[in-house]
Amino acid sequence: MVRYRRNIVPGGTYFFTVTLADRSSSALIDHVDALRTAFRIVRQERPFTVDAVVILPEHLHAIWTLPADDADFSGRWRRIKAHFTHRLVDAGIPVARHRTGEYALWQRRFWEHTIRDDTDFARHVDYVHYNPVKHGLVSRVRDWPSSSFHIYVRRGVLPVDWAGDAGESMMNFGEP
C-alpha cells in the first residue's frame, strides 16, 4: 500500500484538488448550495480562510490558509465531504456505496500542494480561476458562476475581462 506524505505546516496556505469518484458526474454544480453549506458548517466548526475556489461539475480546486496553530486540512476535507454527502442522501438523491457500505461519492484522497511564496500563491489563484476555461466549460473566466473570481473582481483585485477569451490565448498557470 502506498504511504501518502503530507507537508504539515501549521498556519500554512495550501492548494487542493478534490474530486468525485465518478468523473462523469455533475453533482458538485448540480448541488452547489449543499456544497456551500458544507463549507460554511466546517468553517464554523474549524475555521480556515478560503483564499480562492472554483467548483466544477466533478472536481473542485481551492486555496486555504489555516489558523497559525493548526495544520489539519485533512480533517476539514473529511468533514466537508461527509456533510455534502449526507445532505444529498437526506434530500433523497441516490449515492452509490462501496461493498463495505461506505458512500462512494468522493475519491478517497485529494491532491495538496503547500504554497511556498507570493509568486506560487498568485500562480495557483490564476490556475483556480482559469480552470473552467481550461476544461472548455466557458470561453471566459467571468462566465463561470461558481468561482471566487467574482469576489476578486468586486474587490478590485482583478478586472472583469481578466484572461480574455479562450480563443485569444492559452494561459499557463499552477503546477509546471
Q: What can you tell me about this protein's structure?
A:
This protein has 176 residues and is an alpha+beta fold. The chain has a single domain, classed as Alpha-Beta Plaits. The chain is built from 5 helices and 4 strands. Strands 2-3-1-4 form a 4-stranded antiparallel sheet. Helix 2 (32-45) packs across helix 3. The longest helix is centred in the middle third of the chain and has 18 residues, at 73-90. It is globular, with a radius of gyration of 16 Å.
According to DSSP, the number of beta strands is 4
The class by helix and strand makeup works out as alpha+beta
CATH architecture: 2-Layer Sandwich
| Helix share bin | 25-40%
Radius of gyration over all CA atoms, rounded: 16 Å
- What CATH calls the topology is Alpha-Beta Plaits
User: What is the string of SSEs from the N terminus onward?
Assistant: EHHEEHEHH
Name the poorly predicted regions: none
CATH superfamily, please? Transposase IS200-like
Strand content: 5-15%
In the CATH hierarchy, what is the class? Alpha Beta
Number of domains: 1
Query: How many H/I helical runs?
Result: 5
